[in-house]
Design goal:
The protein contains ten helices and ten strands. It is an alpha/beta fold. The strands form two sheets. It has a seven-stranded mixed beta sheet with strand order 1-2-3-4-5-7-10, with helices on both faces. It has a three-stranded mixed beta sheet with strand order 6-8-9. The relative contact order is 0.11.
Length: 265
């Protein structure tokens, strides 16, 4: 069931699901391979700041043959160092709205996931790639540096050495290689990334909201803490999560034999 659709020439938003619980966000610049400009980045920020309260999970995808081919170099402006710093910070703020926003986000990847497109993909909590996907960071050959948080997020997935290799040499990872090194968690046949991403988003939307919040906001911070601080933060989050009425109801349903048990599919 679709609640509503909205779109610009840069991005579209559709709210779907029986309870209007899934937001589908599409980059809509297919003739530009969904390259990112400031308008598109601002639209992403606006969408995640204003998602309806019914939404419990989101999917990001790209129209056309590619997810996102990175920065739109045709719109690259001359900036001094201070202006460049502020511009990069504006992208960081926008992409933080995806990673640390209100709901978990699943990326449906295909074709080019390059430069800023890879930076956008790595803000998502789960990435599903189809067989056409390829990953690159061509900034090194263009005399520039990543500016949308890539130097923070990408090494956490694949390591600093692999990221440096991509920028030093222009190395391109194909879909299989990318999944093996951690750029995606799922690899599916051509044309099936969106379907799989929706399947995952619907499953995520069934979780207790506070558990999803903990996974989005607490887990990455715990991973950055030393063990003693991490254990304490974990205990605090566990206590808060299990005190929620929905958590108590779910545990009771399991104990009463009314909830499904873990099994291999």
């Amino acid at each position: 069931m679709t609640q509503y659709k909205s779109s610009t020439d840069l991005i579209s938003l559709e709210i779907t699901g029986e309870s209007h619980e899934i937001a589908v966000i599409r980059l809509t610049r297919p003739t530009k391979r969904n390259a990112i400009n400031d308008g598109l980045m601002a639209a992403i920020k606006d969408v995640f700041e204003n998602l309806p309260s019914t939404v419990r999970a989101a999917v990001i995808a790209g129209e056309g043959d590619h997810f996102c081919a990175g920065l739109d170099l045709s719109e690259l402006q001359e900036r001094d160092a201070g202006q460049g710093l502020m511009h990069s910070r504006s992208w960081t703020v926008a992409l933080d709205k995806v990673q640390f926003g209100p709901v978990p986000v699943v990326a449906a990847l295909h074709g080019a996931v390059v430069g800023g497109g890879l930076e956008l993909a790595t803000t998502c909590h789960i990435r599903v790639a189809d067989e056409t996907t390829f990953y690159a960071l061509p900034e090194g050959s263009r005399g520039i540096f990543v500016g949308g948080g890539g130097s923070v997020r990408i090494p956490k997935l694949i390591g600093a050495a692999r990221m440096a290799d991509m920028m030093f040499t222009g190395r391109v990872y194909n879909a299989v290689e990318g999944e093996k090194v951690g750029l995606a968690q799922y690899l599916v046949p051509k044309g099936q990334a969106f379907e799989k991403a929706m399947e995952i988003a619907k499953r995520i939307a069934q979780n207790a909201p506070l558990t999803n919040y903990a996974l989005m906001h607490a887990l990455p911070r715990i991973a950055e803490q030393n063990a003693d601080h991490g254990f304490f933060t974990e205990s605090m989050m566990a206590a808060i999560a299990q005190s929620a009425p929905e958590a108590k109801a779910r545990v009771k349903a399991f104990l009463d034999g009314k909830a499904g048990k873990v099994k291999v599919e």
